[in-house]
Amino acid sequence: KNEVEQSPQNLTAQEGEFITINCSYSVGISALHWLQQHPGGGIVSLFMLSSGKKKHGRLIATINIQEKHSSLHITASHPRDSAVYICAVVGGATNKLIFGTGTLLAVQP
Amino acid sequence: NAGVTQTPKFQVLKTGQSMTLQCAQDMNHNSMYWYRQDPGMGLRLIYYSASEGTTDKGEVPNGYNVSRLNKREFSLRLESAAPSQTSVYFCAASPTGAYEQYFGPGTRLTVT
User: Fold this and answer.
1) A30 close to B (CB below 8 A)
2) Do B43 and A45 touch (CB under 8 A)?
3) Is A103 helix (H, G, I), strand (E, B) or coil?
4) pLDDT, tens only, B56-94
5) Residue A61 — very low, low, confident or very high, per pLDDT cuts 50/70/90?
6) β-strand pairing of B64-68 with B87-94
């Protein structure tokens, strides 16, 4: 079993929909990252959080340390949000980033 | 500022050839990392360098070597390329491991 699991693996939404991507992890962590990877490959860090909630524009990330779970929400989704969203945790035996396999999001106009 | 740069962007090698992937950062960060990304798998850490002059193995170090030449540069060498090393390679830099990591644009390597 992977230490970081994301769901769903693939998600198709219509423009304007509210989107939720989930991340569960099985190791102790010091922080959790949400990353975005666009077609063409570049990876950008969206959030780093260790508790509570963070908001940036239409993106909201939450984490529940007790339940070992985080969610990434996108409000009023747009086709330009189409990308792979990757959850990664800092923790485990090495205290290095452990990555989920990503969620491929396609937002249709 | 360029952030994290990688060269080359694309490379095709024959089995047994060697090559070095270059990475440089202009953010004055202490830590640098090399990852590989394969279909259906999360990014996996090959090697990392917590600070200038130090390097450590990550999850998948076999077949690779690294050099932290100075604070800016961290190179990844394939001494004898194998088809299993076909992948996209990303370099990243961060102030420390727990903080935000800044990724380079990636190198797409094919070994035939």
Assistant:
1) yes
2) no
3) strand
4) 999 999 999 999 989 999 999 999 999 999 999 999 999
5) very high
6) unpaired
